[in-house]
Automatic annotation (TrEMBL):
InterPro entries given in the database record: DUF1697
Protein name, entry field: DUF1697 domain-containing protein
Lineage: Bacteria, Bacillati, Actinomycetota, Actinomycetes, Mycobacteriales
Length: 175
């Protein structure tokens, strides 16, 4: 059995509302075990003996779309990968007055575009660093949606391939 983390994009923001108990039930109905949701922002941990990650992702997205009536996109990793991503966070995650984020992307080109913004950012407001399939982002509290990177990473064209999580949320997921 492999333990996976499904990060649902855009859940309980922008009009897509769902109860995590309903999401948990859906994952159980698909046949997954040890299903657990963390917070109300679309974080699901589950176990399965299936190993084809692409097929798992497609099945989950299809089931979410059918059950909840929205075009679902997820990022899917096993828990060891998420743990490695968390442990590799390159900035001080406890920096007072700052938020530590991880931007997950399933499209290498978009990840490169986002990482290439590093030299254009004001380090007094935010910093980014490349990770394995992610972009690490540190931003001053209160600037998340106003910062250059925050605006760039929220582009509509990135919607189906990226999702952002606070490092503290990821720590709860792997705990």
């Amino acid at each position: 059995m492999t333990r996976y983390v499904a990060l649902l994009r855009g859940v309980n923001v922008g009009g897509i509302r769902m109860k995590m108990a309903d999401v948990r039930k859906l994952f159980e109905d698909i046949g997954f075990t040890a299903v657990k949701t963390i917070l109300a922002s679309g974080n699901v941990v589950f176990e399965t003996d299936r190993s084809d990650r692409s097929a798992l992702k497609a099945d989950i997205e299809g089931a979410l779309t059918e059950r909840f009536g929205y075009e679902a996109w997820i990022v899917l990793h096993d828990t060891d990968t998420v743990r490695s991503i968390v442990e590799s966070y390159p900035f001080d995650p406890e920096r007072d007055g700052w938020h530590p984020y991880v931007v997950f992307t399933s499209d290498a080109d978009i990840g490169t575009e986002l990482r290439d913004l590093a030299d254009t950012l004001d380090p007094e407001v935010e910093r980014v660093a490349a990770g394995d399939g992610v972009v690490y982002w540190e931003v001053e509290r209160g600037q998340t949606l106003l910062s250059a990177f925050g605006k760039a990473s929220g582009k509509k064209g990135y919607k189906s391939t990226t999702t952002t999580r606070n490092l503290r949320t990821l720590q709860k997921i792997i705990a």
